[in-house]
UniProtKB/TrEMBL annotation:
One of its GO terms (molecular function) is ether hydrolase activity. The gene is murQ. Residues 57-219 form the SIS domain. The lineage of its organism: Bacteria, Bacillati, Bacillota, Erysipelotrichia, Erysipelotrichales. This is N-acetylmuramic acid 6-phosphate etherase. Pathway: Amino-sugar metabolism; N-acetylmuramate degradation.
């Protein structure tokens, strides 16, 4: 079946780059930079919709649900990338997941044909055991990818809250989803190469969705990532520096409380600021929904 791409701005030719193959390296770099600079401003226009999506994600995470990204090609890889960064950054386990059409192998080797299966998109959502506790974010620059359409349709049937992230207005996935985030970035420097501006826009939106949702469930203290998983030397040192910053103490004091806190900066900060043991720190955090600032300000 013929696919009509003419109406998609992501598929139109960019009038500023008609002579791209005749430009110098410097000229190519400058035009790419000029085009990229427009992307954050395009994202800004969708802040209201992004906010609504985050409100639902926070609610889902608080009730034991998940944030699940699904997409094909570049869009799918960006979703997986955002998801896999959450465990080391925020000590998540199952809470944020990324699914890509074609499975894990498609992350490192392009399998463009798999995006055409509406039915496989539905199967991938069913296989992920999506429920009404979850939020499913379908990502597609074009906004019409059959696999993503199938995934969002199935997710909605299962009662999940659905979000569409596209780079064309009035997108097909946007019409299916409960909320549409449609960042129209316009024609690409190379026609149809949506790994460029469209991909950058999607990355910015996903950064917002996961990061602000994690802030909303108590994964930070001030602007410190106090729930990080200290799994290597760099992250151990980062944890100690974080404790020093939060508690205004010296290195040795921070290191000592870090070792006593099961190597969890969040526990360590509460222990140090309140001069309490780990059991008391855990209790306060549990009773204050994991927010450090609430735990340290709790009345005795």
């Amino acid at each position: 079946m013929k696919v009509n791409l003419k109406q998609l701005t992501t598929e139109q030719r960019n009038p500023h780059t008609f002579s791209l193959d005749q430009m110098s390296i410097r000229e190519c770099l400058e035009i790419m930079n000029e085009e990229d600079c427009q992307v954050p401003l395009c994202v800004k226009k969708e802040i209201e919709h992004i906010e609504i999506a985050i409100q639902h994600i926070i609610s889902a995470l608080q009730r034991g649900g998940r944030l699940i990204y699904i997409g094909s090609g570049t869009s799918g890889r960006l979703g997986v990338l955002d998801a896999v960064e959450c465990p080391p950054t925020f000590s998540t386990t199952y809470e944020v997941q990324g699914l890509i059409a074609g499975g894990e192998t498609a992350f490192v080797k392009a399998q463009e044909g798999v995006e055409d299966s509406f039915d496989q998109g539905q199967k991938d959502i069913a296989h992920a055991h999506v429920t009404d506790k979850d939020v499913v974010v379908g990502i597609a620059a074009s906004g019409r990818t059959p696999h993503t359409l199938g995934a969002l349709t199935k997710a909605k049937d299962l009662g999940a809250y659905t979000v569409a992230v596209a780079c064309n207005h009035q997108s097909a996935i946007g019409k299916i989803a409960d909320i549409a985030i449609e960042v129209e970035t316009g024609p690409e420097v190379i026609t149809g190469s949506t790994r460029l501006k469209a991909g950058t826009a999607q990355k910015l939106v996903l950064n917002m969705l996961s990061t602000v949702s994690m802030i909303g469930i108590g994964k930070t203290y001030q602007n410190l990532m106090v729930d990080l998983h200290a799994s290597n030397e760099k992250l151990i040192e980062r944890s100690i520096q974080m404790i020093m910053e939060a508690c205004e103490c010296d290195y040795e004091s921070a290191r000592d409380v870090f070792l006593k806190s099961e190597q969890k900066p969040k526990y360590a900060i509460v222990m140090k600021l309140l001069n309490c043991n780990i059991e008391e720190a855990k209790r306060r955090l549990l009773e204050n929904k994991s927010f450090v600032y609430k735990a340290i300000n709790e009345k005795s």
